[in-house]
Write a structure and sequence with these properties.
By secondary structure, the protein is α+β, with helices and mostly antiparallel strands. It is built from five helices and 13 strands. The chain has one domain: q2cbj1_9rhob like domain (Jelly Rolls), CATH 2.60.120. Strand 5, helix 5 and strand 6 form a beta-alpha-beta unit. The chain is globular, with a radius of gyration of 18 Å. The two termini are 35 Å apart.
Length: 249
């Protein structure tokens, strides 16, 4: 029987400056989190992706063979991905945001299960066409990082869920997500996702990296964020899933 996952949106604590972002402790039930964290894919399936810093990725776009092979053998994760890619999940996220005074103006949107940049639906209907994309992401605790960036223009909402098991991560190693603003105000407008060096930004707030947490933010021209280089052992792995709601038009 297909498993349907639920999310603890009422746990969310919102900040609205410099852009809308929320921290959600205990985003999943204890049972769901245990099953997913204990079956998280092994690092050998991932591909090193230095474009944004120092991280490893397993996703449909960069490693479809390993991605699909893993999901085929792991029912909990296969069902989790199906939940995330459903129209019901999209509606749930947008309704949650609207309840917190964030109306993205996407009523009447079309939905596509598989993300493509263009297609018959997006050409024929005069409405936004949305899809959800998921990526497994790992950074090593000895220097792993993500450079300051605002996310690609096609993204609308980004969510990052942690999947480390209890006792597997020491907060002293770092790994928190930094909300940033550029030191030079002339660099504030960054809709096209121009990367900045760490020395060009100030940290507004850091959301610590802890088990079973969710972080959600809206893509804006100034949604600048990063993960600073971590200072733990090579055996420490910061394991997450990134979920993007994207516009296909």
């Amino acid at each position: 029987m297909k498993r349907v996952f639920t999310f603890n949106w009422p746990n969310a604590a919102f900040d609205y400056e410099p852009y809308p972002i929320c921290y959600i402790p205990q985003i999943l039930s204890d049972a769901d989190y245990r099953d997913l964290s204990e079956s998280y894919p092994p690092l050998e399936l991932f591909r090193f992706m230095p474009d944004l810093g120092d991280k490893y990725s397993l996703a449909f776009r960069n490693n479809p063979k390993n991605y699909h092979a893993f999901l085929a053998k792991c029912p909990p994760w296969r069902d989790f991905v199906e939940t995330l890619k459903s129209r019901a999940f999209l509606g749930e996220v947008l309704a949650f945001l609207e309840s917190r005074n964030i109306d993205l103006g996407l009523k009447g949107y079309g939905h596509r299960h598989t993300a493509r940049t263009r297609g018959p639906l997006s050409r024929l209907v005069n409405r936004p066409v949305l899809s959800t994309r998921m990526e497994f992401s790992v950074m090593r605790a000895n220097g792993g990082h993500i450079l300051p960036h605002t996310d690609a223009p096609g993204k609308i909402v980004t969510m990052v869920f942690s999947f480390v098991r209890p006792g597997e991560w020491d907060e002293a190693w770092g790994g928190g997500t930094d909300v940033l603003k550029p030191k030079d105000p002339a660099l504030t407008y960054n809709q096209v996702n121009r990367q900045l060096p760490f020395e060009a930004v100030d940290v507004v707030k850091t959301f610590p990296f802890t088990p079973n947490q969710g972080l959600m933010f809206i893509k804006t021209y100034n949604s600048l964020h990063s993960v600073q280089p971590m200072t733990g052992p090579a055996t420490g792995l910061r394991k997450t899933v990134t979920i993007n709601i994207e516009s296909l038009r």
